[in-house]
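Q: Could you write out the predicted structure for this multi-component system? I'm mainly interested in how the pieces pack against one another.
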Amino acid sequence: MAASIGEATTPVATSEALARARLRASFVPDLLVEARRVVNTVIAGWHGRRRRGIGENFWQFRPYVEGDSSRIDWRRSARDEHIYVRDKEWEAAHTVWLWADPSPSMLYKSSHATVSKESRALVLILALAELLSRSGERIGWPGLTDPFSARNGAERLASHLTHATTLAFRPDVSSVRRFSDIVIASDFLDPVEETMEWLDVLARHGVRAHLIEVADPAEETFPYSGRTEFRDPETGAKLTAGRAETLADDYRRIYAARRQELSSWAKRLGWSYTVNHTDRLASESLVRVHAAMTVDGGYASGGRR
Amino acid sequence: MSWLPLSFGFPAVLAGLIALPVIWWLLRLTPPKPRSELFPPLRILAQVLRKEETPHQSPWWLTLLRLVMATLVIFALAEPVFNPQQRAETGSGPLALVMDNGWASAPAWDLRVAAAQRLIADANDAGQPVVLAFTAEPAATEIGPFEARAAKERLAAAKPRPVPVDRPGTYARVATSLDGASNVTIAILSDGIRAEGDQTAFAKILSRGAARLVWAEPSDLPKAALTAVENSATAFTLSAVRPASDIAPLQLTAGAYDDRGRRIADATLSFAPGESAATADVAVPFELRNDFASVSIDGEAQAGAIRVLDENSKRRRVGLLSQSEADQAQPLLSPLYYIRRALEPYADLVESQTPDLAVAVPELLAQKPAMVVMSDVGTLPDAAREALVEWVKGGGTLVRFAGSRLAAAEPDEELLPVRLRAGERALGGALSWTEPQPVSEFPATGPFAGLTPPQDVSVTRQVLAEPNPDIVEHTWANLADGTPLVTGAVRGQGTIVLFHVTPEATWSNLPISGSFVEMLRRIVQLSRNQGQVETANGAPAASLPPYRVIDANGALTMPSPEARPLQAGATPKITVENPPGLYGSEEGVVALNLLPADATLDPIARPTTILPVSTVSYALDESRDLKGPLIAAALALMALDTLAVLWIGGVFARRRAGAARATAAMLALAIIAGSVGDGRAQDAKPGDDEAIAAISKTRLAYVLTGDPSIDAVSRAGMEGLRRFLTEKTALEPGEPAGVDIAADELSFYPLIYWPVDPATAMPSEAAIARVDAYMQQGGTVLFDTRDQFETSLDLANSTSPATQRLRDILGDLNVPALEPVPEDHVLTKSFFIMKEFPGRFAGAPLWVEVTAPTQSGEDRPVRVGDGVSPIMITANDFAGAWAVDENGQALLPTVPSDPMQRVYALRGGVNIMMYMLTGNYKSDQVHVPILLERLGQ
């Protein structure tokens, strides 16, 4: 028998939660380093917020459109026949909640992937923490820390993570307020309805969410064949397929349909939905998520619904 | 299991088959172990898996496979034997194996040996000694008892003998060797033919401690055996017998062979239903019969089916009698001279030294001659006559010749075949009307039938037979007028022959002809020696060494070392030391044949005994142990099962990606290899394009002389001719080709125009050799010296430089005899009808190879001949006349300036091209009008 394709990166311990926390704590520093490295690849193109908003600095003149609530800059408007509005650069500190799925299924790493899903999720989250901290945003981990603003936000978040003994499988989103952003890195393998149910709270609160689906390539391509017994790392449930290769097509269709449903739902809410495969680079997703955070909108569509 | 030739060594193991259902149940419950995989999106997979029933059990075919495997193993453990050989009951005592290896055992000897081997193997298993005796072996042969292994070796060394079996003697020896033994198994492997003394022999052997009898006899006896052959004057007769148990009608063919083994005649032996004897006549001419050395029945490989013959090669003794004294001074007039010369090569001649018949005749008859020749003996003394008559009736052959004494003597009915008229008849004398008579065809009924009658023999005197009604059947040879020349008659078992002429060349020239020798030889062959000669001093006759012997398979072979000379005189007994065959030497042989004339083939009778008897059959051991194949099949199934389990486990599917990569790699390799193969197939050579261009259209060619102006005119001339050809004929040549005779391939062009110019360099020898080869292989070169008007004036040195150059060139070529184009040459008619071939100049002849003058009449308008002229020579500057510029205007003026001359020049060019391309075809075409005219009428 050939070696299994997938494995859990953690050994089974008696006190599972504690053991996992310790494990997580043990690799958080490494992930922090990795996150810094990833951030450095992104930071090159990062020059301030570059968006209009509430702030001190002039950002741009923009033609006045009817119904525009902004103030007309008459000095500029007097110079020609058009009426302009002065925009200021947005300088308000922003709260971004970060959360990575700590469930056991995230510990999965197949032979095709370079890292486990959890590792990838934490790297992404910490990298974002670093990015956001540097730009002065407030970051927080629902259920673990309140939002704080610090230059070394990533370290602080990492130390919180290191010392946390238990992490909830679902984030406590009650403290997430409107006009906040939340970044959720998870594999979203629960049924779509359940996922939507707990994410819907955020939508109702008018939070803009950035969903990062961390997917293992083995989950997506289903490279299994022959008589195979599948085990669920969370529930321990087992399924035996007589000839696994015959299931591949159906499975891929359903797997893709789940992702499609979730991502279209997110798009409808104005959220971003990013898929990161663990056999690809973390920076790819980081760039996409960061770009999605910098574009406007999202609060409105989420909040006004 | 009577319906299947299968037996089991341990049938009890088959009870294990009862366990099969249990095995089946167990197999059903243990599916192959799956691979375990951690899989987080299990809930998604669960939606898919709901559709499929997860197999909890092995697939039915896998179960079946394993069940079959189990069944095979159970069967294999039961030690099955396919086609089992029945085993003869052998006891615990020694085995006495008595085997017939006489002549009747030769067919299927291997089967007999196989049966004996099985018996010996059984004895080997029991550890018992074996007494092994063969009934046709010499009495001194060791018979044992042997160890079973030694007996087996002896059995392998034994072979059938071409002699009769000696059962009583052999059985007696076996019985002696068994003295004191008990519980003996007697195995008698008989050949199935009854022989004298069988029953007493059986009784003897079964009386000594025998506990049981194993009996074997062959299922089929020899089909037939030859018992006698007889070569009578009229036919050659074979006699054969067959086993009395065969009653169905049977036809066998027999062949007669000469002394070198060539088949020269056939006969068919037909056994009537119920009959066990048959005869066959070989209907072949007398001469062929005399070449018979052996006869054998086809398809019977045994010594009884062949008989050797000695009659024809046995030398006859011929006694010569004459009343006239031998005149040594005049041997050619001696009456016996020609007879002696004729018979010496074929017969032993016996002569009496005394002319006194009363002494000479008994002296001769004491030698038991086959034939006595009497030359011109009139009357015999009474005692001698009686002895002679007796001898003839006993089988002797008396040959008499006529002569004056016989003609004068009183006719002796008993010693003459026909009644003779007194006196003699002279033919063709001075006072006779008759002519000397030649010999006519020999009568077909007589012994001379088939001989060629001598053309040059004429008979001038003879004695005449009384014309009787039966004279014709006694006549062996006739003269042309119907009077008998040789007559013969049977007296008792003997024959009397009379030549009606003298034995010397006085009455006829028959004795000095070749036919005389042939006739005497035939008579000698009809005769038979009348017994053995008693040697004078009573010493035994020299023994005859074996010359050719018959082996057990019925073939004549060289004698083996154990063959001993045949003691002459004694009644020969056939033994291993004296096998049947020919004894003597090339000069004369005595035949010793296996079966006497009264032999019969009766089936052997099984001895009646109170002992338990088991019968075995002669057959090869065909039993086959099936244990090995069954185990092998089970192992194969096991391998199959492993493969199936791997397949179910998905190993092959997982390898598919790797396999795809491997396939891609192999494909790439194959493509590389294919491209390499293309590279190999690429055999293009430089110059191919030119060659293809040259041969894809007919092209007019000219030799590049190196002088640009000449080459330009040549090219323009070819172009002009090309246009004219395209315009007038079906030929549409391609662009004119200038060829360098030293380098270019010439064989692409039917005609090469060569303007000879003294100013240019002389071609190299190699170039001229190329041109020579081109001409030899069917090409034609048109030499043009273009010097018509430079040659005529200076008579002293009439050769122009161009002509001189041409001579130099032709000096190295194989030029045939040349002539100016005659009026009836094909060139004059191949397209246009032309009388002469002008160019830019007119008047010079066109030289071509001489064609053979027409043989068949003067009226043919054209000469026939094969091939085309390899060379044409002109001085008229054809190319100059043909040359045109790009607009089609003539380049050069003709001399004299006559427009028609240019037209004729072009027509001449057309004719030359047509001649080149069609050969002498046009010489046949000229008859078309006449043929059409004839058809029309």
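A: Regarding packing and overall arrangement: The first strand of chain A starts at residue 6 and ends at 8.
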